[in-house]
Design a protein that fits this description.
heterodimer, A: 379 residues, mainly beta, Methylamine Dehydrogenase, Chain H, four-stranded antiparallel sheet, 28 strands, globular, B: alpha+beta, GMP Synthetase, Chain A, domain 3, 6 helices, 3 strands, CIAO1/Cia1 (chain A), WD40/YVTN_repeat-like_dom_sf (chain A), repeat (chain A), WD40_rpt (chain A), Probable cytosolic iron-sulfur protein assembly protein 1 (chain A)
């Protein structure tokens, strides 16, 4: 099935260093850095640039130029944050500002990290400041599994095996206020994700469902709909990018990815089931896609899991048929299939780079402890 | 250990002789540096690991609430093991349908295989269909890698697992 696919994933970098399973990776939305986390309780930070020589001199150029990586990209380890978490760091999330990093740990806490003031060294040059824990959010009773910032960065959501979803308000100076504790799921909550522009939160669970929440202006946050259809644990969620909007993808232990479409303000419906994985799907990520242009394009969807494979789907809006009231599914095409992305190991996360000019970059983490960077290219 | 005993009087069966020698060090839980399990030698590995080999790895695991092995209680048996090239499926039979120890037994089997088999093997563990009143719940939990990972970071639970695995290296031979 991997013959004649129009794209392939080309290896760009292989980032080793974690001493145990690498669970998750997050690209900084503003700067050329990324963070990975692991069962070894650390977070590793890397920088990348297309500079022909090493070090961070060209980062500004990389930030602004869409042609930045016509030179080969170089990835470099910046630092390792020991975190102090007593157990596995299960996931990481950047605030939209790119200045703050949140960690979710099996020790049931959430860590909030910022880089300290850069102190000039003896020569007057500014060195790298240390990453410091500016806040620890306690409240979950058992393993915290996922954490996510809202699009404006004013809200943080977290979830846990304790079946709850918490919403925290982000105040200045590392202060956080619990504004809601949602107890809708009947089992572990595996993943939380915010809509790219609106304050809608989605959560995925071991109870096989997805729940969507909004705030009642005169009252608390509440679950306005439950999406059912998956026949086992829902591991991961990905909203369609802001430019396309209106869709949510979910990945499950039932070996399918489901695409849900917003058919009314508060109504979502499953419009597509993607198959192709042979074991549990642990992660899904949705990007604009670099090549996909035109009003019908919905971008690229990447999925990965226990079979070790990474699948890339190209999605487009269905052609409009005015005579039909039935919601048609997006057209979909498998465009790339990378086998054994981490050798014999499970792939635990797959994440598209969100930064302009780098939309063709993809990061994966695996049970081998590696973070791997891939570039999608015509085959 | 829990106060409640789920099956106070289990039937204990006689065991068969293992054809294999016990691990040189019965307390070594990491045996996957065995040169014959070298990944580079894929053909040999496939030959080296069969149903009996997997059974040998798990037969001497102790039951969490009895001084007997899983083989003696007929919780595990060779015919309940299915092998693919890079895939092992182990089915086990709880001694009673309400056995609250089932997830722990399954966890012990998973940990033993995780530590013993070459990394290329994907392991699925299920209770025998119809043998447990919460069959789906037990199966789901045993095959959720995140729950397994978290369980093994729980010192009390890990200690219990280690107790059950203390003589697993005997591979059916008398200690």
């Amino acid at each position: 099935m991997d013959v004649d696919l129009p794209y392939k994933l080309v290896p760009v970098a292989e980032l080793q260093g974690h001493e145990d399973r690498a669970w998750h990776v997050a690209w900084n939305p503003k700067k050329p850095t990324l963070a990975s986390c692991s069962a070894d309780k650390t977070v590793r930070l890397y920088s990348y640039s297309s500079a022909p020589c090493s070090h961070s001199t060209n980062l500004d150029e990389a930030n602004t130029s869409s042609h930045a990586h016509e030179h080969p990209l170089r990835f470099e380890h910046i630092t390792t944050i020991p975190t102090g978490h007593a157990k596995t760091v299960r996931s990481v999330a950047w605030a939209p500002s790119g200045e703050t990093l949140a960690t979710a740990s099996f020790d049931s806490n959430i860590g909030i990290w910022e880089k300290g003031e850069e102190e000039p060294d003896e020569d007057g040059a500014t060195g790298d400041g240390e990453w410091e824990c500016i806040s620890t959010l306690e409240g979950h009773e058992t393993e915290c599994k996922s954490v996510a910032y809202s699009s404006t960065g004013t809200l943080l959501a977290s979830c846990s095996r304790d079946k709850t979803v918490w919403i925290w308000e982000v105040h200045p100076d590392g202060e956080f206020e619990t504004i809601s504790v949602l107890m809708e799921h009947t089992q572990d909550v595996k993943c939380v994700g915010w809509h790219p522009t609106e304050e809608i939160l989605a959560s995925a669970s071991y109870d096989d469902t997805i729940k969507l929440y909004i705030e009642d202006p005169s009252d608390d946050w509440f679950c306005f709909t439950t999406l059912t259809g998956h026949t086992s644990t829902v591991w991961s969620l990905a909203w369609s990018p802001a430019e396309t909007g209106g869709y949510l993808a979910s990945a499950s232990d039932d070996k399918t990815v489901r695409i849900w479409r917003r058919i009314a303000e508060h109504k979502w419906e499953c419009v597509l089931v993607l198959r192709g994985h042979e074991r549990s799907i642990y992660s899904v990520s949705w990007s604009n896609g670099k090549q996909a242009e035109g009003s019908h394009a919905l971008g690229w969807l990447a999925s990965a899991g226990g079979d070790g494979n990474v699948l890339i789907w190209e999605l487009s809006e269905p052609a409009l048929e005015e005579s039909s009231a039935i919601v048609k599914p997006p057209t979909h095409k498998l465009i790339a299939n990378l086998k054994s992305a981490h050798g014999v190991h499970d792939v635990n996360s797959v994440v598209w780079c969100p930064r302009k000019g780098f939309e063709d970059l993809l990061a994966t983490t695996g049970d081998d402890g590696y973070t791997r960077i891939w570039k999608i290219a015509p085959s | 250990m829990p106060a409640e005993i789920f099956n106070p009087n289990p039937v204990v069966f006689s065991t068969s002789k293992s054809g294999k020698k016990p691990d040189l060090s019965p307390h070594s839980l990491w045996i996957n540096d065995d040169p014959e399990n070298d990944e580079n030698d894929a053909d040999e590995v496939v030959e080296a690991i069969d149903q009996e080999e997997i059974f040998d790895l798990i037969r001497s695991i102790y039951d969490p609430e009895h001084p007997n092995t899983l083989e003696e209680l007929r919780v595990v048996s060779a015919p309940q093991i299915t092998l693919g090239q890079n895939h092992v499926k182990v089915e086990f039979t709880p001694t009673v349908p309400h056995c609250g120890m089932s997830t722990l037994i399954g966890l012990c089997i998973r940990v033993r295989l995780l530590r013993s088999l070459p990394e290329r093997f994907k392991v699925d563990i299920f209770v025998k269909p119809g043998s447990h009143q919460s069959e789906n719940a037990v199966n789901k939990q045993l095959n959720d890698k995140e729950r397994v990972a978290a369980a093994l970071e729980n010192p009390v639970l890990l200690d219990t697992v280690e107790q059950c695995l203390v003589n697993a290296g005997a591979r059916g031979n008398p200690i």
